[in-house]
Design a protein that fits this description.
alpha+beta; two-stranded antiparallel sheet; 4 strands; elongated
């Protein structure tokens, strides 16, 4: 699911929006499909998808990166569950 949301969706979203827009504008007809696909601006749609994917990958890398520290998993303490947490590394 993560691969779909971070790579596949941004790559396909510009093309999907363009196709929906042409259907809504009444420019898409089944008998004219080959001509429609010849007129489709694949280069611009591919570039837009790559830009969206690149922006998403960079933002995930910058904003969702790993934090420094030691992970303490959830555990049982005096009969209660203590949630997992990230504690600072000793000496920092």
């Amino acid at each position: 699911m993560r691969v779909f949301l971070t790579i596949v969706l941004p790559l396909l979203l510009p093309t999907a929006l363009y196709v929906l827009w042409t259907i809504g504008a009444g420019r898409f007809h089944l008998e004219e499909t080959p001509e429609f696909w010849r007129e489709l601006p694949f280069l611009w749609l591919a570039l837009a998808g790559m830009v969206l994917t690149l922006a998403l990958v960079v933002s995930v890398a910058e904003l969702g990166g790993a934090k420094n520290g030691v992970y303490v998993p959830p555990h049982l303490e005096n009969g209660t569950i203590v949630p997992g947490r990230l504690e600072p590394e000793p000496g920092h």
